[in-house]
Design brief:
With 411 residues, the protein is of the alpha+beta class. It has 13 helices and 23 strands. Helix content is 29%, strand content 24%.
């Protein structure tokens, strides 16, 4: 470790979406900023997101009630930052940099070209703010000295690093969650929060495929690769949550936007209920078919859902392997119920390796929703490291931009 000492107004740890944006905004507001990351590359999550086109925000975010699209122990916490830095403001920045984009569906905005354009834009914003970047740079011990009666300010942080000792009155943690460890995810932010006596809501994988163990899944494993629009729900009464999205069968379980969305709300041991023909009264359709058709049940069902699914569902019951006009009403009713209300309980998730984000994180009760400063003076937390998790579709990036902006303007 080098013995030189460096002083900065602000040190931002983590060069992902939130860290890059915060450093750039703070630098352009006249602060001397150091951005540190343990990895050589910056913005890796931006680069790999959206199939390499970065779903960088969501136009449908309701700034009056943004908590509708976010979870956490206190979903209202995110409201202040999100309502002060709206998707439109980030869109204007993207346009200023000449980046072409399009809306895919449901308000999701993607680059026409490569996601690297968003990374380059954030780096250009950092350069415009004169931000110093140290990468790769490993951090060691971090200590805090409270202000003495005769000294101005709230105290200062002393940070050991392999490039020297850093001193700063303001420390911003933007180290993200535990998702996608292969691009350098770490628990640094949670450990630091605990070091300074802040609470951490137990992290867990979110926006993650669900798995189904053992023999019970065998009949469905051969549906791997099949995708279709569904209505998926979990939870009871007030806790109930449902999404209308596409579902994908995999060898190990279920994925696709529908499952990634519901995974953030699913609790271990709870069943999922899936409607494979949303908006269609399957019982009525099969009842009508029985009166007019001599086709096999599987063929009639294949007019309502994909034929592979129809074959799999009918194939499990000998009473259904016949022409529809010869089927018992009871058997058709049971089949309709299975198509419209299939209940299945996941055995688990694909874990952090496949999770797009991490739910849980630094407890929002210990943070200011206005400034993102923690109860520990001069220590701020932004982005995914905080217990705020958005829906699929650009919401998590919008939280990164909004929390970073709230923090940078407060610094």
């Amino acid at each position: 470790m080098s013995t030189a000492t460096f002083q900065f107004d602000v040190v931002v740890v983590g060069a992902g979406a939130a860290g890059l944006f915060c450093a750039g905004v703070a630098g352009q507001r006249g602060l001397k900023v150091l951005l540190v990351d343990h990895s050589e590359k910056v913005g890796e999550k931006i680069r790999i997101s959206g199939g390499g086109r970065a779903n960088f925000t969501n136009r449908d975010l309701d700034v009056r009630a943004p908590q509708r699209h976010f979870i956490g122990d206190n979903p209202n916490f995110c409201r202040s930052a999100l309502s002060r830095y709206a998707p439109q403001q980030f869109i204007e920045l993207v346009q200023k940099h000449g980046i072409a984009f399009h809306e895919k569906h449901k308000g999701q905005l993607f680059c026409d070209g490569s996601s690297q354009q968003i990374v380059d834009m954030l780096l250009a914003e950092c350069a415009a703010g004169g931000v110093t970047r140290w990468q790769p740079c490993k951090l060691g011990a971090i200590a805090f000295s409270p202000a003495t009666a005769d000294a101005a300010g709230a105290g200062s942080y002393r940070i050991d690093s392999d490039r020297g000792v850093i001193e700063t009155p303001k420390l911003v943690i933007a180290t993200g969650g535990l998702s996608i460890p292969q691009i350098g995810a770490s628990d640094f932010g949670y450990r630091l929060a605990e070091q300074f006596g802040l609470r951490v809501v137990t992290p867990r994988p979110a926006l993650v495929p669900l798995t189904f163990g053992g023999e019970g899944w065998a009949p469905y494993a051969e549906l791997a690769g099949l995708a279709l629009p569904v209505r998926i729900e979990t939870g009871a009464k007030k806790e109930k949550m449902a999404f209308l999205e596409d579902l994908l069968f995999t060898h190990r379980g279920l994925s696709g936007p529908a499952v990634l969305q519901i995974s953030s709300y699913w609790k271990p041991g709870a069943p999922l209920t899936i409607d494979f023909a949303p908006g269609t009264d399957v019982a009525e359709a099969l009842g009508e078919a029985k009166l007019r058709s001599k086709k096999r049940i599987a063929n009639e069902l294949a007019t309502l859902v994909p034929s592979r699914l129809a074959d799999a569902w009918v194939g499990q019951d000998p009473a259904l392997q016949r022409p529809v006009n010869e089927a018992a009403d009871k058997a058709l009713a049971a089949l309709s119920e299975r198509i419209a209300r299939w209940q299945i309980t996941p055995s688990g998730t694909e874990g952090y390796k496949k999770a797009e984000v991490t739910a849980g994180g630094v407890d929002t009760r210990d943070l200011s929703s206005q400034t993102m400063e923690s109860k520990q003076p001069g220590l701020y937390f932004i982005g995914e490291v905080v217990d705020v998790t958005g829906w699929l579709g650009g919401y998590n990036f919008q939280w990164a931009w909004a929390s970073a902006h709230a923090c940078a303007t407060a610094l």
